[in-house]
Amino acid sequence: MSTINETNYTLIEKQLASLIEGETNLIAILSNTSALLNDNLTQINWVGFYLIDNNELILGPFQGHPACVHIAIGKGVCGTAVSEDKTQLVEDVHTFPGHIACDANSKSEIVVPIHVNGEIIGVLDIDAPIKGRFNKKDAQGLQAIVSVLENQLAKH
Ligand code: SME
């Protein structure tokens, strides 16, 4: 049985799959995904995407306050997720070397790389206003959400 505050990622996965079924437009898919996650995740202050364009990350669809537009690959939590091709689970952003503070309220963060046909195309980035908001279960749940996205994007 799950605790009251535990996010039901399986349910979000199902909702996402039906929400983006048959859709081919990247911006529309990512916009609705950010809105769905914003509706379903508690204690977050930013959720959205950065997409690789001309060898850097550029701000994509998101929910939250306006954010930095350009992030170099290898810089910040997002750029590190790309250069290491690995989910970044950051309990306290102030201890992450080179963390880029777009929103001063952000205290913890999770970033999951997104792949299409074996190539990394960008990241899902979520910020929280409390330390230690995300754990391994969140990482697994969000990776499963990203897999739903990847499957849909790979079809086209
Ligand atoms: N904190 C991120 C920058 C993006 S904002 O969180 C929206 C980073 O260090 O890459």
TrEMBL record:
Domain GAF per the UniProt entry, residue ranges: 25-156
Domain of life, per lineage: Bacteria
UniProt xrefs under SUPFAM superfamilies: GAF domain-like
Pfam families given in the database record: GAF
Gene Ontology molecular-function annotations: L-methionine-(R)-S-oxide reductase activity
GO cellular component annotations of the record: cytosol
InterPro entries named among the record's database cross-references: FRMsr_CS (IPR000614), GAF (IPR003018), GAF-like_dom_sf (IPR029016), Phosphatase_reg/MetRdx (IPR051330)
Family of this protein: Belongs to the free Met sulfoxide reductase family.
Name of the protein described by the UniProt record: GAF domain-containing protein
Species annotation: Staphylococcus devriesei
